[in-house]
Design goal:
single chain; 502 residues; 6-stranded antiparallel beta sheet; 3-stranded mixed beta sheet; 38% helix; elongated
């Protein structure tokens, strides 16, 4: 678990102390770790609107910076976290990172420490990471330090692991024979990587030497030569480039499926846990939010519905009392989640700082009642959105716009990730201005609209709703005075006649 947060100044002091230790002056590093829980997990408290930055242990940070002297200093004094510890976010370890990056001296320092290093505890985990432009990369779990170093052609690190005399015989044998999650031994991994490096002659040569070193250390295949022609053996067992590329793509697809399946399961488990916490610990301010009282005074008047733009419908929806009740309840919940952390009430924060995932915070009954009340509008004006089983809310969040908000002048034109979007104004301060919503029609269906393509501007007032398809282009305009808040509900056709539930 992440440790106690430190300030950015304390983080900077740690980085300076690590540099001093790398130059042979470790007193400041020792003192820093003693003052900060041994430096086992460094969590930096950034600005209030930003999440905590979890950097890992002081030992991990030293390895990331390729500071072998600082690594040795920490290990000798049993500070900065344990040598087998994992990063709290991505589960990387100091040894895995050093082997993959080729930090030879850090690997030596870690293996020489004699402080309980167990290479068998150092295996990667399936995970997704993002490269530039948000491109996902899928990292395979179950890979050992030797596999990481070998696959990256970190020849010097492989030599240390195999020939450095720093590992017990059983640990070395484990490294040589432990398969990855696709059943490939380290030698097989290297042989599969060889044809993929054909455009990098120096890397390919390193991979061949690494394969020979693994065979020499006893990590060969069943028919590996003993004193025979190793080069010929390597060539015989190296797949052709087309086969290697196809099997690599298949592995990536399999890892992607594993990661997404695990993420989905973890998210569902967290959702269920959060709803249990809400049921056990949350005391509503207005019980009517969870009963038919919320929409008791809604009287549907089809004559009040306006369609100012095709597929966009504006109309009075929630009475002022119901709007105020829901607005107050949402803020009451946020206060409870913030002020009683021991209850672990879910409180998801969106990228824009607003309260998100209301459906997972106990507000499902209110959302269901809102969608039920909208059914007559949908039947009359958007019958295709209903389907045979009606419509259900899939995601909901609260927006709050005010002068001075960072995102106030940077709202982007966009479509929603929904089949249907409901925007209900719950709050508008006296004298508020701006924060309207513009709706656009692109010149061509495949084009993003421009400013001159605006066809309708929706002006908010408390209780008034605007309903549109998720594919409709729109953008919120900057607010110029006061405050305004809305409930946004994303919905889709219900796939089956299932009873509504959590």
């Amino acid at each position: 678990m992440p440790g106690k947060a430190v300030s950015r100044e304390a983080r900077d002091a740690l980085l300076a102390a690590l540099s001093e230790a790398e130059d042979g002056h470790g007193d400041a590093l020792t003192q820093w770790c003693v003052r900060h829980d041994g430096g086992a997990e460094v969590v930096v408290a950034e600005e209030a609107s930003k999440p905590l930055s979890i950097m890992g242990s002081a030992l991990y940070i030293a390895v990331v910076g390729d500071m072998p002297a600082a690594v040795g200093h920490l290990l000798a004094r049993r500070l900065g976290g344990g040598c087998n510890d994992r990063h709290a976010v991505h589960s990387d370890t100091a040894l895995l990172h050093a082997c993959e990056q080729g930090y030879k001296e850090c690997v030596e320092a870690l293996l020489r420490a004699g402080t309980g290093m167990d290479v068998r505890q150092h295996l990667t985990v399936d995970r997704r990471l993002f490269l530039g432009q948000g491109v996902p990369q899928w990292e395979e779990g179950g890979r050992s330090a030797l596999v990481l170093a070998a696959e990256k052609a970190q020849e010097a690190v492989v030599r240390i692991l195999l020939d450095g005399g720093l590992l017990p015989a059983d640990s070395l044998n484990w490294l040589l024979t432990h398969p990855d999650t696709f059943g490939r031994t380290p030698l097989r991994v290297v042989l599969d990587a060889l044809p993929l490096a054909a455009h990098l002659p120096s890397k390919q040569a390193s991979l061949r030497r690494i394969a020979a070193a693994i065979i020499d250390a006893g990590g060969g295949l069943a028919d590996a030569p003993e004193g025979g022609d190793v080069a010929a053996f390597i060539e015989r067992h190296t797949p052709d480039a087309a086969a290697a590329r196809e099997t690599e793509r298949a592995r990536v697809r399999a890892v992607r499926e594993r990661v997404l399946t695990a993420q989905k399961a973890a998210k569902e488990a967290e959702r269920v846990r959060g709803l249990r916490a809400v049921e056990e610990h949350y005391r509503p301010l207005h019980g009517g939010v969870y009963t038919t009282e919320l929409l008791r005074d809604v009287v549907w008047d089809p004559r009040a519905v306006e369609e100012p733009f095709p597929g966009v419908f504006a109309f009075p929806f929630l009475p002022p009392a119901a709007s105020a009740m829901l607005w107050q309840e949402l803020h009451h919940y946020e206060a409870a989640a913030r002020d009683r952390p021991e209850h672990a009430l879910p409180h998801p924060i969106r990228h824009d700082g607003n309260f998100g995932d209301l459906q997972d915070c106990g507000f499902r009954p209110a959302l269901d009642r809102i969608m039920d009340a909208l059914a007559p509008l949908l039947r009359q004006h958007l019958p295709d959105s209903l389907g045979p089983y009606g419509v259900e809310a899939t995601h909901a969040f609260l927006t709050r716009n005010y002068v001075g908000r960072d995102q106030n002048a940077t709202f982007k034109m966009h479509c929603d990730k929904s089949e249907l979007t409901v925007n209900v104004c719950l709050h508008a301060a006296d004298g508020f201005a701006g924060s309207t919503v513009g709706f656009y029609q692109p010149k061509e269906p495949e084009l993003t609209p421009e400013d001159e393509d605006r066809r309708y501007t929706h002006v908010h007032s408390v209780g008034r709703a605007v309903v549109h398809t998720g594919a409709t282009w729109h953008r919120t305009d900057p607010i110029t005075s006061g405050t305004r808040g809305s409930l946004i509900v994303w919905a889709r056709r219900r796939e089956a006649a299932e009873p509504k539930g959590l």
